[in-house]
Amino acid sequence: MSDYGPWRAKACVFEHLGYFYDRRAQKFPFQRFEQLYLVPSRADFRIADHIEGVIDGVGTEICKAEKIEKKRRKRSSFRVGGFDLTGALRRSRASDRFVGGLIVADCPKPFHGRTVVLPNDLHPRNLFSGAFQNIGERVELESDDFNSAFIVYSTDQVEARYLLTPTMMERLLRLRKPTVRELSLGFDEGKVWIAFNDRRDWFPDPGVNGDAADPAYLDEMKKELDYIAVIFRELDLATTSKT
Q: Which of 6-13's residues contact partners 24+ apart within 8 Å by CB, and which partners?
């Protein structure tokens, strides 16, 4: 296996571990993340390392993603209706930076509508785009801490509260700290869609001179899979009853 290039060697590693692997992530459902507003819209992303299989009892698809930064012309101010939104626009652009993982996981709780949980930040682009029209209405939940950290939209208010129980809200708040810059989550089509912006390189390559046959590299990939398993356990995706 050491005779292969690093990308092919990585494929051999994941196939050995029992996972489907595609370096170019051609079939990963990235567009659904855009449609749910879990990643910035109209943004150019670089995605790679589509991995599919079962982790900790949960059927899942994963890929790593990074937003490609584009140079923008400087703007002295940004005003709408007499309000200066320059600072908010800068925060929005900062939050648009994404380096982390995208996860699609089977959801153990049955549901029929669509619910999204987004960082509670102002994105001026949404003032004009009519965003969130296809994901329902704003949902106010009982936790002030949660409402301060996240904004929730759903096509079914009752179902949103069924999915976002007090325990689940606590879990999401814990998962958001201390390393994750942004955490977005959607419930749609019987699955949980997670954008985990933790500013780390998921499933790193062994390098040009690296050897994927090295047991240390195999252990490193196992640790990456364990990282996903920790997320699933925190969200209780493997143990929640499906009935």
A: 6/205, 6/206, 6/207, 6/208, 6/210, 6/212, 7/205, 9/206, 9/210, 9/211, 9/212, 9/213, 10/49, 10/203, 10/205, 10/206, 10/212, 10/221, 12/212, 13/212, 13/217, 13/218, 13/221
Which single residue is written with the structure tokens 């009519």? 130
CA–CA separation, 28 and 22 (whole Å):
9
Alpha carbon distances (Å) from 130 to 48, 89, 207: 30, 17, 44
Within its chain, how far is the Cα of 34 from the centroid?
Answer: 11
pLDDT tens string 4-61: 456 677 888 888 889 999 999 999 999 999 989 898 765 678 999 999 999 999 999 9
The per-residue pLDDT for 57 is: 93
Q: What are phi and psi of 11, to 5 degrees?
A: -60, -40
**240 touches 109 (CB < 8 A):** yes
Amino acid in position 170: E
Per DSSP, the three-state class of 12 is: helix
Query: Is 60 exceeded by the pLDDT of residue 129?
Result: no
Residues whose CB is less than 8 angstroms from the CB of residue 121 and which lie 6 or more positions away in sequence, other chains included: 91, 92, 95
CA angle centred on 38, ends 121 and 56, rounded to 5°: 120
Tell me the β-bridge partners of 139.
152
Do the beta carbons of residue 210 and residue 4 sit within 8 Å?
A: no
CA distances from 233 to 49, 93, 114, 229 (A): 22, 32, 22, 6
Q: pTM for the complete prediction?
A: 0.82
- Identify any residues that bridge with 29 across adjacent strands, giving them in sequence order: none
Three-state SS for 210?
A: coil
